[in-house]
Amino acid sequence: MGSGPRLRLRSQRRDCLTAVMSSKARKQGDATVADAAWTAAGKAQPTGPSGPSGRSGRVGRVLIAADKFKGSLTAVEVAERVAAGLRRVAPHVEVEALPVADGGDGTVAAAVAAGFERREVRVTGPLGDEVTAAYALRDGTAVVEMAEASGLQRLPDGVFAPLTATTYGSGELIRAALDAGARTIVFGVGGSATTDGGAGMLAALGVRFLDAEGEPVAPGGGALRGLATADLSGLDPRLADVDVVLASDVDNPLTGPTGAAAVYGPQKGAGPEDVAALDAALGHYAEVLEKAIGPRAAEYAQSPGAGAAGGIGYGALVGLGASFRPGIEIMLDVLGFAPALERSSLVITGEGSLDEQTLHGKAPAGVAAAARAAGKEVVAVCGRLALRPEALGRAGIRRAYALTDVEPDVSRCIAEAGPILENVAERIGQDFLA
Ligand SMILES: Nc1ncnc2c1ncn2[C@@H]1O[C@H](COP(=O)(O)OP(=O)(O)O)[C@@H](O)[C@H]1O
Ligand SMILES: O=C(O)[C@@H](CO)OP(=O)(O)O
């Protein structure tokens, strides 16, 4: 496995959303300016809670670094609503928004909110139809999100295709990033409709996957059972000079009981027989690749992240020379989280459901770990909360605020997520900022 690129943190880069919010804050009077000066001096006041309410006295800039609430709010909307609620009770407080993502769907949107340029490309969707997908580009770094081309969100009418869905479009997105001159590609994976081991992606980048008759195998993971040879000689030569970082929030191997098909196949519509067929097909695919490129192909199949997004992690490790990094970790670097953290004293993170999964490398856990290491106070917002206070505390989250605390009817929480989140943010403002 190659070593990952050293992405430099860009100091003081303010994102578009932040600029909007800051200018709004400035309009609210001198108090904000005074507060901004105080935070700019980098002298974050001690933020330890001073009472049962968690009120911490004077808090400097607030950093909102939350992921989306899947199914109800994008990460940008979460940031906007939280900022609006905070302002109602603490208009003097300066707020900075840095929507985050962990490699799955929403990753390009987070990069764009942080100032990357959004580039759209027509690519092949999971069922072979054309879709418009976007990647993000800034200063030679491209953020490519496989879900943009090959995600569940791309299935027309939500009809699953566990055996036939292809990652070909993800390869086309990578090709577009290469055409644009990217030197580093952060390849965010997750939220996929596919279980093809990344064969479609590699085919789009020049690898030939042939059956016993010498014909290209059909798209999708199911057809990999009939794979006879893999020819990597036509792989796009530009990949040799580009650092590819596999950004994933899961570290599953390619196959077996914790592999791509067994764990994530069912959420793509795979029944037990499909799971068995896909698992066998992926195992066979790895054997064919081992014949083509040697034992490292077998080693990669066991590597963390190989089983991400239907095995596209494996395809990226084997074919693109990618290095694996936990998605939220690399994305925090890409988004410029460290400097934003430094100028803040309270961090608000969150996602739709704060649960056990959150603790295993999802965005709020990554944000909280980094913020805690920097001695910052962290609270979380979420649609639903399924973690006990002790578990939150271990993750570095002082308190979590759920929409369902305000509105017990979950369907209303989803339908009216924005206004309810503003109310929740008001409570945070009262507890920590007023
Ligand atoms: N507004 C909301 N109110 C209550 N629950 C929500 C809301 N939005 C999302 N959720 C819950 O969060 C789940 C999505 O979790 P989330 O953490 O956003 O994504 P992931 O699937 O990556 O874990 C939804 O299935 C739903 O249960
Ligand atoms: O696409 C997938 O197979 C899974 C794992 O990578 O994604 P998510 O974590 O979003 O369920």
UniProtKB/TrEMBL annotation:
The keyword Phosphoprotein does not apply. Its EC number is 2.7.1.165. GO terms for biological process: organic acid phosphorylation. Keywords: Kinase, Transferase. It is an enzyme of class 2 (transferase). Pfam families: Gly_kinase (PF02595). Belongs to the glycerate kinase type-1 family. PANTHER family: GLYCERATE KINASE. This is Glycerate 2-kinase.
